[in-house]
Amino acid sequence: RAKSAQSSSACIFEDNMQTEFQMKYNVEQDLRGAIERQELELAFQPIVDIQLPKVVSLEALIRWPTAKFTSNPQEFITIAEESKLIEPLGKWIIERAITTLKEVNTKLGYPVRLAINLSPLQLEDISLPAYINDCLKRIDIDGSLFTFELTETALLTESKRVSSSLQRIKELGCKIALDDFGTGYSSISHLLNYPIDIVKVDKSLTDRIGVEERGKRIFLGLVNMLKSLQLSIIVEGVENYQQYYVCKEVKVDKIQGYYFSSPISEKNILRTIKSLNKELVR
Ligand code: C2E
Ligand code: MG
Ligand code: MG
Ligand code: MG
Fold first, then answer.
1. Whose CA is nearest to atom 34 of ligand 1?
2. Ligand 2 centre from 179 Cα, in Å?
3. Per the database record, which ranges form the EAL domain (predicted)?
4. For residue 79, which ligand has an atom nearest its CA?
5. What residues does the ion ligand 4 have nearby, CB within 5 Å?
6. Measured distance CA(102)–CA(106) in Å, rounded
7. What is the tens place of the pLDDT at every residue in 141-171?
Protein backbone atom coordinates (compact mmCIF):
# COMPACT_ATOMS: atom_id res chain seq x y z
CA ARG A 1 0.00 0.00 0.00
CA ALA A 2 2.84 2.31 0.93
CA LYS A 3 4.35 1.68 -2.44
CA SER A 4 1.26 2.57 -4.39
CA ALA A 5 0.78 5.73 -2.34
CA GLN A 6 4.33 6.69 -3.14
CA SER A 7 4.04 6.10 -6.82
CA SER A 8 0.80 8.00 -7.07
CA SER A 9 2.31 11.02 -5.35
CA ALA A 10 5.33 10.78 -7.66
CA CYS A 11 2.85 10.86 -10.47
CA ILE A 12 1.19 14.00 -9.20
CA PHE A 13 4.61 15.58 -8.88
CA GLU A 14 5.50 14.70 -12.44
CA ASP A 15 2.14 15.98 -13.52
CA ASN A 16 2.78 19.34 -11.88
CA MET A 17 6.21 19.54 -13.47
CA GLN A 18 4.66 18.75 -16.80
CA THR A 19 2.04 21.48 -16.41
CA GLU A 20 4.55 24.02 -15.20
CA PHE A 21 6.85 23.23 -18.09
CA GLN A 22 3.97 23.43 -20.53
CA MET A 23 2.88 26.75 -19.04
CA LYS A 24 6.34 28.26 -19.33
CA TYR A 25 6.52 27.09 -22.90
CA ASN A 26 3.13 28.64 -23.67
CA VAL A 27 4.08 31.96 -22.12
CA GLU A 28 7.40 31.95 -23.95
CA GLN A 29 5.75 31.37 -27.33
CA ASP A 30 3.08 33.98 -26.61
CA LEU A 31 5.75 36.48 -25.53
CA ARG A 32 7.94 35.82 -28.56
CA GLY A 33 5.03 36.68 -30.84
CA ALA A 34 4.06 39.71 -28.78
CA ILE A 35 7.59 41.13 -28.99
CA GLU A 36 7.64 40.63 -32.75
CA ARG A 37 4.25 42.26 -33.17
CA GLN A 38 5.30 45.06 -30.79
CA GLU A 39 2.37 44.50 -28.48
CA LEU A 40 4.17 45.35 -25.27
CA GLU A 41 3.88 48.78 -23.72
CA LEU A 42 5.49 50.81 -21.00
CA ALA A 43 3.60 52.37 -18.11
CA PHE A 44 5.16 55.21 -16.17
CA GLN A 45 4.81 55.85 -12.46
CA PRO A 46 5.60 59.32 -11.07
CA ILE A 47 8.08 59.77 -8.23
CA VAL A 48 7.35 62.85 -6.17
CA ASP A 49 9.73 65.06 -4.19
CA ILE A 50 7.49 66.23 -1.34
CA GLN A 51 9.95 68.92 -0.31
CA LEU A 52 9.88 70.82 -3.60
CA PRO A 53 7.01 69.66 -4.03
CA LYS A 54 6.73 68.26 -7.54
CA VAL A 55 7.15 65.21 -9.76
CA VAL A 56 10.87 64.74 -10.24
CA SER A 57 11.04 61.35 -11.92
CA LEU A 58 9.18 58.52 -13.60
CA GLU A 59 9.74 54.76 -13.46
CA ALA A 60 9.15 52.76 -16.62
CA LEU A 61 7.22 49.54 -15.98
CA ILE A 62 6.52 46.92 -18.63
CA ARG A 63 2.92 46.05 -19.54
CA TRP A 64 1.58 43.28 -21.74
CA PRO A 65 -2.07 43.99 -22.53
CA THR A 66 -2.51 41.15 -25.04
CA ALA A 67 -1.07 38.37 -22.86
CA LYS A 68 -2.96 35.05 -23.12
CA PHE A 69 -1.58 33.45 -19.94
CA THR A 70 -0.06 36.00 -17.57
CA SER A 71 0.27 39.75 -17.61
CA ASN A 72 2.26 39.84 -14.35
CA PRO A 73 5.64 41.49 -15.16
CA GLN A 74 7.43 39.55 -12.43
CA GLU A 75 6.29 36.28 -14.03
CA PHE A 76 6.86 36.98 -17.68
CA ILE A 77 10.16 38.81 -17.11
CA THR A 78 11.44 35.67 -15.36
CA ILE A 79 10.38 33.57 -18.32
CA ALA A 80 11.95 36.09 -20.69
CA GLU A 81 15.21 35.68 -18.79
CA GLU A 82 15.10 31.91 -18.92
CA SER A 83 14.46 31.92 -22.65
CA LYS A 84 16.88 34.66 -23.74
CA LEU A 85 13.93 36.79 -24.89
CA ILE A 86 15.09 39.33 -22.33
CA GLU A 87 17.76 40.50 -24.75
CA PRO A 88 15.45 41.94 -27.44
CA LEU A 89 12.81 42.85 -24.86
CA GLY A 90 15.33 44.62 -22.63
CA LYS A 91 16.69 46.60 -25.56
CA TRP A 92 13.21 47.58 -26.65
CA ILE A 93 12.37 48.77 -23.12
CA ILE A 94 15.49 50.95 -22.96
CA GLU A 95 14.97 52.57 -26.34
CA ARG A 96 11.24 53.10 -25.83
CA ALA A 97 11.75 54.57 -22.35
CA ILE A 98 14.46 56.98 -23.48
CA THR A 99 12.37 58.08 -26.46
CA THR A 100 9.38 58.73 -24.21
CA LEU A 101 11.40 60.80 -21.73
CA LYS A 102 12.76 62.94 -24.56
CA GLU A 103 9.19 63.73 -25.67
CA VAL A 104 7.96 64.37 -22.15
CA ASN A 105 10.78 66.73 -21.27
CA THR A 106 10.44 68.64 -24.52
CA LYS A 107 6.81 69.41 -23.71
CA LEU A 108 6.82 69.63 -19.91
CA GLY A 109 8.89 72.75 -19.41
CA TYR A 110 11.26 71.28 -16.83
CA PRO A 111 13.31 68.08 -16.93
CA VAL A 112 12.18 64.97 -15.04
CA ARG A 113 14.33 61.88 -14.60
CA LEU A 114 13.54 58.36 -15.73
CA ALA A 115 14.24 55.05 -13.99
CA ILE A 116 14.56 51.85 -16.03
CA ASN A 117 14.56 48.39 -14.44
CA LEU A 118 17.34 46.06 -15.54
CA SER A 119 17.19 42.33 -15.17
CA PRO A 120 20.27 40.41 -13.99
CA LEU A 121 20.93 38.90 -17.41
CA GLN A 122 20.99 42.29 -19.09
CA LEU A 123 23.83 43.32 -16.82
CA GLU A 124 25.78 40.22 -17.76
CA ASP A 125 25.71 41.38 -21.37
CA ILE A 126 28.92 43.36 -21.86
CA SER A 127 27.48 45.26 -24.83
CA LEU A 128 24.73 46.84 -22.69
CA PRO A 129 26.52 50.12 -21.79
CA ALA A 130 27.40 50.76 -25.44
CA TYR A 131 23.78 50.09 -26.40
CA ILE A 132 22.56 52.60 -23.82
CA ASN A 133 25.09 55.14 -25.05
CA ASP A 134 23.95 54.65 -28.67
CA CYS A 135 20.33 55.26 -27.67
CA LEU A 136 21.23 58.40 -25.71
CA LYS A 137 23.22 59.80 -28.65
CA ARG A 138 20.65 58.91 -31.29
CA ILE A 139 17.71 60.27 -29.28
CA ASP A 140 19.86 63.21 -28.17
CA ILE A 141 19.23 63.30 -24.46
CA ASP A 142 21.55 63.63 -21.48
CA GLY A 143 22.57 60.41 -19.69
CA SER A 144 22.45 62.14 -16.32
CA LEU A 145 18.63 62.06 -16.49
CA PHE A 146 18.55 58.28 -16.18
CA THR A 147 18.61 55.79 -13.36
CA PHE A 148 19.02 52.06 -13.81
CA GLU A 149 17.36 49.99 -11.11
CA LEU A 150 18.67 46.60 -10.12
CA THR A 151 17.46 44.07 -7.63
CA GLU A 152 19.68 42.05 -5.37
CA THR A 153 19.58 38.95 -7.49
CA ALA A 154 21.53 40.86 -10.13
CA LEU A 155 24.30 41.48 -7.64
CA LEU A 156 24.41 38.15 -5.86
CA THR A 157 26.76 36.50 -8.32
CA GLU A 158 29.51 39.10 -7.76
CA SER A 159 30.49 38.84 -11.39
CA LYS A 160 33.24 40.91 -13.00
CA ARG A 161 30.99 41.54 -15.97
CA VAL A 162 28.25 43.03 -13.79
CA SER A 163 30.73 45.30 -12.00
CA SER A 164 32.23 46.58 -15.21
CA SER A 165 28.78 47.11 -16.80
CA LEU A 166 27.74 49.17 -13.79
CA GLN A 167 30.93 51.20 -13.93
CA ARG A 168 30.50 51.95 -17.61
CA ILE A 169 26.84 52.87 -17.19
CA LYS A 170 27.89 55.33 -14.50
CA GLU A 171 30.47 56.80 -16.86
CA LEU A 172 27.55 57.73 -19.12
CA GLY A 173 26.32 59.95 -16.28
CA CYS A 174 23.49 57.60 -15.28
CA LYS A 175 22.71 56.69 -11.69
CA ILE A 176 22.34 53.23 -10.18
CA ALA A 177 19.51 52.36 -7.80
CA LEU A 178 19.21 49.29 -5.59
CA ASP A 179 15.55 48.25 -5.92
CA ASP A 180 13.37 46.44 -3.36
CA PHE A 181 15.75 47.21 -0.52
CA GLY A 182 14.92 45.34 2.66
CA THR A 183 13.59 42.19 1.05
CA GLY A 184 16.84 40.33 0.43
CA TYR A 185 19.27 38.82 2.87
CA SER A 186 22.47 40.66 2.10
CA SER A 187 21.25 44.03 0.88
CA ILE A 188 23.62 45.95 3.10
CA SER A 189 26.75 44.31 1.75
CA HIS A 190 25.78 45.42 -1.75
CA LEU A 191 26.04 48.99 -0.57
CA LEU A 192 29.71 48.32 0.12
CA ASN A 193 30.49 46.39 -3.02
CA TYR A 194 28.70 48.30 -5.75
CA PRO A 195 28.56 51.95 -6.88
CA ILE A 196 25.00 52.55 -5.72
CA ASP A 197 23.56 56.09 -5.69
CA ILE A 198 19.94 55.50 -4.77
CA VAL A 199 18.19 52.99 -2.53
CA LYS A 200 14.53 52.16 -3.03
CA VAL A 201 12.95 51.03 0.22
CA ASP A 202 10.63 48.13 -0.55
CA LYS A 203 6.87 48.27 -0.14
CA SER A 204 6.96 45.42 2.38
CA LEU A 205 8.70 47.80 4.82
CA THR A 206 6.48 50.75 3.92
CA ASP A 207 3.41 48.59 4.58
CA ARG A 208 4.35 48.28 8.23
CA ILE A 209 5.34 51.83 9.18
CA GLY A 210 1.82 52.90 9.94
CA VAL A 211 0.57 49.75 11.64
CA GLU A 212 3.11 48.87 14.32
CA GLU A 213 5.71 50.67 16.38
CA ARG A 214 8.42 48.15 15.50
CA GLY A 215 7.76 48.61 11.81
CA LYS A 216 8.13 52.33 12.16
CA ARG A 217 11.38 51.98 14.13
CA ILE A 218 12.93 49.63 11.61
CA PHE A 219 12.04 52.14 8.93
CA LEU A 220 13.56 55.05 10.87
CA GLY A 221 16.75 53.12 11.58
CA LEU A 222 17.10 52.14 7.95
CA VAL A 223 16.51 55.68 6.72
CA ASN A 224 19.11 57.07 9.12
CA MET A 225 21.67 54.49 8.07
CA LEU A 226 21.09 55.22 4.38
CA LYS A 227 21.33 58.95 5.02
CA SER A 228 24.62 58.58 6.87
CA LEU A 229 25.96 56.74 3.83
CA GLN A 230 24.87 59.75 1.75
CA LEU A 231 22.59 57.65 -0.38
CA SER A 232 19.45 59.02 -1.98
CA ILE A 233 16.31 57.35 -0.71
CA ILE A 234 13.07 56.62 -2.52
CA VAL A 235 10.28 55.05 -0.50
CA GLU A 236 8.14 52.67 -2.56
CA GLY A 237 4.55 51.59 -2.17
CA VAL A 238 3.24 54.60 -0.23
CA GLU A 239 -0.51 54.13 -0.36
CA ASN A 240 -1.97 56.33 2.38
CA TYR A 241 -1.65 59.55 4.30
CA GLN A 242 -0.20 57.87 7.38
CA GLN A 243 2.73 56.38 5.43
CA TYR A 244 3.26 59.67 3.64
CA TYR A 245 3.28 61.47 6.97
CA VAL A 246 5.97 59.20 8.46
CA CYS A 247 8.16 59.85 5.40
CA LYS A 248 7.67 63.57 5.87
CA GLU A 249 8.51 63.32 9.58
CA VAL A 250 11.83 61.57 8.95
CA LYS A 251 12.63 63.89 6.06
CA VAL A 252 12.56 61.39 3.26
CA ASP A 253 11.74 63.51 0.25
CA LYS A 254 11.20 61.10 -2.59
CA ILE A 255 8.10 59.00 -2.62
CA GLN A 256 6.54 56.58 -5.11
CA GLY A 257 3.19 54.94 -4.62
CA TYR A 258 -0.53 54.85 -5.25
CA TYR A 259 -1.01 57.67 -2.72
CA PHE A 260 0.25 60.01 -5.44
CA SER A 261 -0.24 58.01 -8.60
CA SER A 262 -0.34 54.47 -9.95
CA PRO A 263 1.58 53.69 -13.15
CA ILE A 264 -0.01 55.49 -16.11
CA SER A 265 0.00 55.02 -19.85
CA GLU A 266 2.28 57.04 -22.09
CA LYS A 267 -0.48 59.25 -23.40
CA ASN A 268 -1.47 60.38 -19.90
CA ILE A 269 2.00 61.34 -18.65
CA LEU A 270 1.92 65.08 -19.24
CA ARG A 271 -1.62 65.52 -17.97
CA THR A 272 -0.92 63.47 -14.84
CA ILE A 273 2.33 65.26 -13.98
CA LYS A 274 0.71 68.66 -14.41
CA SER A 275 -2.33 67.88 -12.29
CA LEU A 276 -0.22 66.19 -9.61
CA ASN A 277 2.03 69.23 -9.43
CA LYS A 278 -1.00 71.47 -8.99
CA GLU A 279 -2.37 69.30 -6.18
CA LEU A 280 1.00 69.19 -4.46
CA VAL A 281 1.32 72.93 -4.04
CA ARG A 282 -2.24 73.23 -2.77
P1 C2E B 1 9.60 47.31 -9.02
O2 C2E B 1 10.66 47.75 -9.96
O3 C2E B 1 9.91 47.31 -7.58
O4 C2E B 1 8.34 48.19 -9.37
C5 C2E B 1 7.39 48.61 -8.42
C6 C2E B 1 6.15 47.75 -8.50
O7 C2E B 1 5.26 48.14 -7.46
C8 C2E B 1 5.35 47.91 -9.78
O9 C2E B 1 4.69 46.68 -10.02
C10 C2E B 1 4.34 48.99 -9.42
O11 C2E B 1 3.19 48.98 -10.23
C12 C2E B 1 4.02 48.58 -8.00
N13 C2E B 1 3.58 49.70 -7.15
C14 C2E B 1 3.97 50.98 -7.17
N15 C2E B 1 3.37 51.70 -6.20
C16 C2E B 1 2.57 50.84 -5.54
C17 C2E B 1 1.68 50.98 -4.41
O18 C2E B 1 1.50 52.04 -3.82
N19 C2E B 1 1.01 49.85 -4.02
C20 C2E B 1 1.18 48.64 -4.65
N21 C2E B 1 0.49 47.59 -4.22
N22 C2E B 1 2.03 48.48 -5.70
C23 C2E B 1 2.69 49.56 -6.14
P24 C2E B 1 4.74 45.98 -11.46
O25 C2E B 1 4.60 46.99 -12.53
O26 C2E B 1 3.78 44.84 -11.41
O27 C2E B 1 6.20 45.41 -11.55
C28 C2E B 1 6.64 44.41 -10.68
C29 C2E B 1 8.12 44.18 -10.85
O30 C2E B 1 8.41 43.64 -12.14
C31 C2E B 1 8.96 45.46 -10.74
O32 C2E B 1 9.16 45.79 -9.38
C33 C2E B 1 10.21 45.02 -11.45
O34 C2E B 1 11.04 44.25 -10.59
C35 C2E B 1 9.67 44.11 -12.55
N36 C2E B 1 9.56 44.92 -13.79
C37 C2E B 1 8.56 45.74 -14.18
N38 C2E B 1 8.85 46.33 -15.36
C39 C2E B 1 10.08 45.88 -15.71
C40 C2E B 1 10.96 46.12 -16.83
O41 C2E B 1 10.69 46.92 -17.73
N42 C2E B 1 12.15 45.44 -16.84
C43 C2E B 1 12.51 44.57 -15.83
N44 C2E B 1 13.69 43.92 -15.94
N45 C2E B 1 11.72 44.33 -14.78
C46 C2E B 1 10.53 44.98 -14.71
MG1 MG C 1 11.95 49.23 -9.98
MG1 MG D 1 10.85 48.07 -6.07
MG1 MG E 1 9.62 45.04 -6.87
1. 74
2. 6
3. 24-277
4. 1
5. 180
6. 6
7. 999 999 999 988 878 777 888 999 999 999 9
